[in-house]
Structure formats: C-alpha cells, structure tokens
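Take a look at my tokenised protein here and describe the backbone shape.
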Amino acid sequence: MKAIGYNEAGSADNLAVVEVARPVIGPRDLLVAVKGISVNPVDVKLRAAMQPEGAPRVLGFDAAGVVAEIGDAVTGYKVGDEVFYAGDVTRAGTNAEFHAVDERIVGRKPAKLDFTEAAGLPLTSITAWEMLFDAFRLTEGGGEGKTLLVIGGAGGVGSILIQLAKALTGLTVIATASRPETQDWVRKMGADHVVDHRGDLAAQVDDLGLAPSYVAALTATDQHWDAIINLIAPRGQIALIDDPEALDIKAAKPKALSIHWEFMFTRSMFGTEDISAQRDLLNRVAEMIDAGTLQSTMTERGGALTAEALRAAHLRQESGRLIGKQVLGGF
C-alpha cells in the first residue's frame, strides 16, 4: 500500500511516497481506510530526530476513516463504521492508505464533520481532556470561582482546551495570544480574558485581579516559568506538554504547587487498565461537536495527502505561527 514516510531523519524534504506492507491487525485492532489526517508538533519532532531502523518510518498521529477489517476480539465496531482517533506513537502512523489501531482508543467520528475536518480533533482533544480531568483532577461542573491560564491558547491544544473548560467546568479562562488574529481566535474559542505572552505575563494577569489555580503550559514553558511561579495561586497546579531543557522545580515549593506532565500516548504505550478512557472521551467530544457545544478547530485544509502537501504542512507546523489545526485528506 502507499504511505508517506522517510528514510533519513532531518528535513521535511525527506518525506516521500513509499510502498509498505498493509498492516496485519491484532485481536483488538481495527484496520481503518484513512480518509483524513492532521499534522501535530510530535510529527515534526520525530521526523527531525528519530532515525528509522530498516524500513521507512511512517508518521501521523491523527486520523479519521472507515473501518475496513476488525480483529477477532473487537466488540465495539463493525466494518463500515466511521471513526476518528489519535493512534499510538509506538506503532506505524496514519500517513498511509490503511492503518491499524487498538479499538479502545478509537471514537465514532462526529457526524457533523467530514473525515478531513474530524481528523483535526483527536490528539488535541485527548490532551486537553486529560489535562483538565486527569492532571488537574477537575470534575465536570467543578472549578466554579477558580481560574485557568492557558499559555499558547491559539494552538491546537489550546483551542480545544479553552472550549472544553468553558463547556464542562465553571472555570474562568485566561488565554495568552500575541497577535491580533490569535487574540481574536482565542476569544472565539471562548476565553474570558486574553493576555500577551510576549509581555509581562505576571503583571497582566495581576491586572485582571485573578490568581489562576490552574496553568496549562502548552509552549515555551521554560521561558514563562518564572512568570508562572509568580502569578499562580498557592497550592495551584501546573500541567505542561512541551519539553523544556530544565526547570527550577524548587521554585514551586513555597506555594506548594503540583506539577503534572501530560502525554496523551501514555495509555496506549503502556496498555494501561483505563486505556478505553480515550475511546469514551472521544465519543463525548463527537457528541458535543454534533450538538454544537464544541466547534471545529480546523483553520487550514491542505487538500489530498501527497508528499508535497505533507511537506508543506510540516513546514507550517514548524513555523510556530499556526492557529488551530491544519488537516489533509487521504490519498
């Protein structure tokens, strides 16, 4: 089957159409005919740094498509079902004609969205949901009277995190954005207040008369660390998704802060007992999209999946100026 992969880590120019074997599925797997994919920061990080071993490395960690085959132990899906999911970083990726995925991390595609647009939601929705309800241990309807600060609110995760926080909790949401277009976007997503992370972040938050109990550090955590420690409320909680080289963790002690790493691939990587939580939350997200409670975060539709289109999408991702999510169709 056709896929897009690379034989040498490094530039996006190394992405090319390759022929690879059609996946052989396991007992709990679905074989999905891929109809839409999206590009995430993990794609460009792995392409730049992870050298393939032998066969070309195929990336892609978001997909929407149609179930073409099911494993012997599959109970939740049948051939012909329309699904969306974020895959498993330890397995071959979704930039291919067909993809194998564990049914327990797969949700039913929102009926309101086409395959391409739906593919922009899974990874970011899982990340945002796990930050709110696993890392911060919030409950639906909880958080009344407290504040969440989202650093990097206009990106893929920030865009859906703002929406989920406003739809499912009582939190006041402050989002950071530095350009007029990104500030308009986070307001559209539902942010109550907007501050500029290029300025004095702690002073701007203080001017709002708010001390966030929760901080979602989605980008440049090391650059904002001192400000986060300064502005967060005592006994507050910080969750981060990026990879800072170093953080002064002792600075968190005087306020007795809790620090959480969010990595949405953990459940699939380790086959945790609650792995099916990702299926359940994706189904909730699909229901909320169809009900109009959540809106799509897609901002760029890049056409069919070709090597040229995927290279261009990787370059846009690397630019650091994307708003929301970019998506591509299937082959």
Observations:
- The CA atoms of residues 51 and 179 lie 36 Å apart.
- The two ends are 11 Å apart (CA to CA).
- Residues 277-291 form the longest helix (15 residues).
